[in-house]
Amino acid sequence: MLDPALFRRKPFVGATTAALATGAGIIALMSYLPGFVVVALDISALHAAFLLLLWSGTSVATALLARRIPPTVTGQVQLAIGLLGVGVGQYMLFGIDDSSTWTRFVPGLLVAGVASGVLNAALGREAVASVPAGRGGMGSGANNTARYVGSAVGVTVVAVIASRSGFDGWNHAALVTATVSVLGAAVVFLLQRMRVGQGESASVTTTSAR
């Protein structure tokens, strides 16, 4: 079902890590957002749905526009940038208190939405491109599984953290999930740098041999 040898391929590990961090980061926090704002801030269900739409709708629109990203920006770099931007948006959702209104969430959700669009546009492509020809289904399946596993674990962690102490719980959950996103970006970027470095070394070796 999944060839373990794929985990020796840095692009595959990077794409899988990005999917895992996406699920455990922004998806986990957004899954908890509507219920939190309705209960803790007495925001109407309509406004709660609007807040979620700000993130998801912006993500969809940005993903459609992401095709205009220059080809010089590799898929792995796009993953890292997307995760980093998502993390920034989540950090902007920190600091909620009993005086906050629904508008307090708007800037962070827009930033996270744009970054999510950039991230999602690259995830599917990299899932297929990171595996050998003819194994695209395996790469896509592994990527989706990583995202679902991350979401399942992340939602549980967020629920445990956020439900314990009201606003402090939400703020802690925002910090934890933002950190997951940023760490995911760091891992993907590091793997990309290692890959580039090894590619350059191989190129120098080949040139010297000639």
UniProtKB/TrEMBL annotation:
Regions annotated as coiled coil: none
Pfam families associated with the record: MFS_1
Compartment(s) where it occurs, according to its Swiss-Prot or TrEMBL record: Membrane
Membrane-topology annotation of the record: Multi-pass membrane protein
Membrane-spanning ranges: 12-33, 45-65, 77-96, 102-124, 145-163, 169-191
Record carries keyword Cytoplasm: no
Keywords: Membrane, Transmembrane, Transmembrane helix
SUPFAM superfamilies: MFS general substrate transporter
S-adenosyl-L-methionine in keyword set: no
Main location: membrane
Record-given protein name: MFS transporter
Species this chain originates from: Antrihabitans spumae
